């Protein structure tokens, strides 16, 4: 029976988030799920991958495996989702397709945001978990290690991850083009919108030292300020603090809060040290004319989004190069995998010895004048010699199937008996 | 040999400029390291050319327009090399390499070969004066290059155009700081250049100041840069305006140099290629 690779699962392309949520596998349930998977007849090795964007199983199987049982054991389990509901959203890849799929996932080519770095870490963690539960063997170990190195190669040799695509990180990048470093800077956050908070957090982790939170209701500002180790102030007093701020983030629902003239005065008071205004509010918090003030730089939501989009399309261009790399690596893995194939090797071995037997038999019999019965006996004798000679190597190979010895023995057999090299 | 090295250097500067352009403007990743490498290489080969002449004539002297251009270009490339090592701002080479190329090309075209310094002009102050004055100019040229990059980057930021240029160039603050550092080095060099020039002149003619055009231009330049530094310290002048002022200073410097060397004006600084 031939050994095959199988990927089975759902992801953000194939299934809505409600379904992905219900099917995601909590870490503590992983060991049990893997154990059950390995009990499915034909499944030799398995890894479960569960992130917010995908739940999928990668398995190395022998012979035919029941799709229904896999669906149940790998994905549904006790989630309460019926096969009828899940089946239309599930995809299945086999053979080379399965390898390609895994390499693309690891390289973040299959991600919602192409080039995002988290998926590789998640894959490594979950592979290690599966490995820890001994559900992986020669094939999946090699497949996963290979997929990690492919991902590294794609990341380092293409620009797939070099540019930010989220609004907050685009804002942080832009700040880095104005200020030499964000260390020791002060950021002023107007309002408590979620996107503003995300941006403030990213700025803080990029080195911003002081955070001022200004809000109409001081209590809620105090709450966030306490959480982020900042200072809260009422919105009315914000103008007085403006000259202190290197970065000003607007995400207040209060409409236009800062005018160009105020900024002009603030910049002067700051002895012309630059100010960066990030307007994340709709309607906008900052007077568009602020951008014309010397030393002040204003980006609103649309400006940030257009930078993010430009970066996204640049990532997509780079992704094409990544696909080419993946294709090369799939080829090289597949060569190895095919070389692993036990059954073809045994068949080939028998065929090659059989060819020698019949050739030599014909040559000898042609020179002798034997009757039908004697010819039959000689034929029989060579046949049983062949079977006895091949018995031991064949059974050793069969026993070694799936073990760590397998690869070595297969290649030894191929060399010793002069079989065609599958790598060529 | 001197000319061959000079031509080789000009070629290296040209290819370097093309590589910088390909990297900064058109995002050709493979050209990223070629620009700085070729500019450094050009500097070395150019150095050989100058060493050749120095050995031939015996002193660091710059006699004639072509030699002046060549020496100036070499020092500008050298100043870039120092800044690049100190601040890892190799992208300034995008302005420095075409500048070095243009100057060296002019030096190749106008090349005359080594000429003896008129005996009456020789003296211990001559090489000191020449070196300091040219070094000061080279540092101002670097400040000019940094200012150009600053304005390009500022324009990219203000116009909300992201893309290649914005991503390749350093932060405004860093550019502004390097600009200031260049002025802080260039100004004392200029001052020393003027003073040693005066000392040399008084040793040779007994007059510290003779009022020839080059001297007047130098004083104008000195006042401008002094004012620029003063405003930086007292009013916090920086950024775009400081860059524009730096560029204006360099424009006057270039005009003065060309005027004194190309136009038929009398004096010890050239005497005019056209005369």
Task: Give a verbal description of the structure.
The complex is a heterodimer of chains A (424) and B (275). Chain A folds into 3 domains: 3-157, Beta Polymerase, domain 2 (2-Layer Sandwich), CATH 3.30.460.30; 167-307, Rossmann fold; 341-416, no CATH class. Chain A is 55% helix and 14% strand. Chain A has 16 helices and 10 strands. Chain A has helices spanning 17-23, 30-39, 67-76, 83-86, 95-106, 118-132, 138-157, 167-178, 194-205, 218-228, 238-241, 260-269, 301-340, 342-367, 372-400, 406-416, and strands at residues 3-11, 43-50, 54-62, 91-94, 186-190, 210-215, 231-234, 247-250, 275-279, 296-300. Chain A is elongated. The mean pLDDT of chain A is 87. With 275 residues, chain B is an all-alpha fold. Chain B folds into 2 domains: 1-113; 136-275, no CATH class. Chain B is globular and about 60 Å long. Classes of the chains: A alpha/beta (424), B mainly alpha (275). The interface between A and B is medium-sized, with 23 and 22 residues.
Strand-pairing-aware structural class of chain A: alpha/beta
Give the domain tally of chain A. Answer: 3
- CATH class group of the largest domain in chain A: Alpha Beta
Most extensive chain contact?
A: A-B, 23 and 22 residues
Q: How many domains comprise the coordinates of chain B? A: 2
User: What ranges of chain A have pLDDT less than 50 throughout 5 or more consecutive residues?
Assistant: none
- What value does the average pLDDT of chain B take? 83
Largest sheet of chain A: 6 strands, parallel
């Amino acid at each position: 029976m031939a050994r095959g690779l199988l990927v089975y699962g759902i992801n953000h392309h194939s299934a809505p988030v409600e379904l992905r949520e219900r099917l995601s596998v909590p870490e503590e349930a992983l060991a049990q799920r893997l154990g059950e998977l390995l009990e499915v007849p034909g499944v030799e090795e398995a890894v479960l991958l569960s992130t917010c964007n995908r739940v999928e199983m990668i398995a190395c199987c022998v012979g035919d495996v029941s799709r229904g049982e896999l669906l149940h054991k790998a994905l549904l389990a006790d989630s309460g989702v019926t096969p009828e509901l899940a089946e239309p959203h599930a995809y299945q890849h086999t053979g080379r397709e399965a390898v390609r799929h895994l390499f693309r996932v690891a390289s973040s080519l299959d991600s919602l945001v192409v080039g995002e770095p988290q998926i590789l870490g998640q894959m490594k963690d979950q592979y290690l978990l599966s490995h820890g539960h001994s559900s992986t063997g020669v094939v999946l170990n090699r497949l996963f290690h290979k997929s990690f190195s492919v991902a590294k190669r794609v990341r380092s040799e293409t620009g797939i991850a070099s540019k930010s695509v989220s609004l907050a990180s685009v804002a942080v990048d832009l700040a880095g083009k104005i200020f030499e470093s964000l260390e020791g800077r002060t950021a002023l956050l107007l309002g408590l919108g979620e996107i503003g908070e995300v941006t403030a957090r990213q700025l803080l982790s990029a080195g911003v030292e002081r955070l001022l939170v200004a809000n109409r209701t001081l209590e809620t500002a105090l709450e966030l300020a306490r959480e982020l180790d900042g200072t809260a102030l009422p919105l009315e007093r914000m103008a007085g603090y403006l000259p202190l701020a290197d970065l000003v983030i607007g995400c207040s629902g209060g409409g236009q809060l800062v005018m160009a003239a105020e900024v002009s005065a603030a910049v002067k008071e700051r002895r012309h040290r630059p100010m960066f205004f990030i307007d994340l509010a709709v309607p906008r918090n900052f007077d568009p004319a602020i951008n014309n003030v010397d030393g002040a730089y204003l980006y609103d939501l649309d400006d940030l989004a257009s930078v993010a989009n430009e970066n996204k399309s640049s990532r997509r261009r780079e992704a094409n190069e990544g696909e080419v790399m993946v294709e090369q690596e799939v080829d090289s893995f597949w060569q190895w995998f095919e070389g692993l194939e036990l059954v073809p090797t045994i068949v080939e071995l028998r065929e090659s010895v059989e060819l020698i037997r019949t050739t030599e038999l014909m040559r000898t019999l042609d020179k002798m004048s034997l009757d039908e019965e004697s010819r039959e006996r000689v034929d029989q004798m060579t046949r049983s010699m062949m079977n006895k000679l091949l018995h031991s190597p064949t059974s050793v190979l069969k026993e070694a199937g799936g073990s760590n010895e397998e690869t070595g023995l297969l290649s030894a057999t191929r060399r010793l008996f002069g079989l065609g090299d599958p790598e060529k | 040999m001197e000319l061959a090295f000079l031509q080789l250097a000009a070629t290296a500067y040209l290819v370097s400029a093309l590589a910088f352009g390909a990297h900064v403007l058109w995002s050709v990743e493979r050209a990223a390291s070629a620009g700085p490498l070729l500019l450094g290489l050009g500097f070395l080969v150019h150095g050989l050319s100058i060493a050749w002449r120095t050995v031939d004539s015996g002193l660091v002297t710059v006699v004639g327009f072509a030699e002046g251009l060549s020496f100036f270009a070499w020092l500008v490339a050298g100043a870039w090399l120092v800044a690049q090592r100190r601040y890892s701002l190799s992208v300034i080479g995008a302005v420095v390499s075409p500048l070095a190329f243009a100057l060296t090309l002019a030096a190749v075209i106008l090349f005359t070969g080594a000429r003896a310094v008129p005996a009456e002009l020789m003296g211990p102050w001559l090489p000191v004066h020449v070196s300091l004055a040219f070094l000061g100019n080279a540092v101002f040229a670097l400040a000019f290059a940094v200012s150009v990059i600053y304005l390009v980057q500022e324009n990219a930021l203000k116009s909300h155009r992201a893309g290649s240029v914005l991503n390749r160039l350093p932060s405004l603050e860093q550019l502004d700081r390097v600009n200031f550092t260049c002025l802080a080095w260039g100004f004392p060099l200029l001052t020393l250049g003027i003073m040693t020039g005066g000392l040399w002149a008084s040793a040779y003619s007994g007059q510290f100041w003779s009022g020839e055009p080059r001297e007047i231009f130098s004083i104008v330049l000195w006042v401008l840069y002094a004012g620029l530094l003063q405003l930086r310290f007292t009013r916090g002048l920086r950024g775009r305006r400081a860059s524009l002022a730096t560029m204006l200073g360099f424009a006057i410097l270039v005009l003065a140099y060309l005027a004194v060397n190309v136009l038929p004006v009398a004096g010890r600084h050239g005497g005019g290629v056209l005369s």
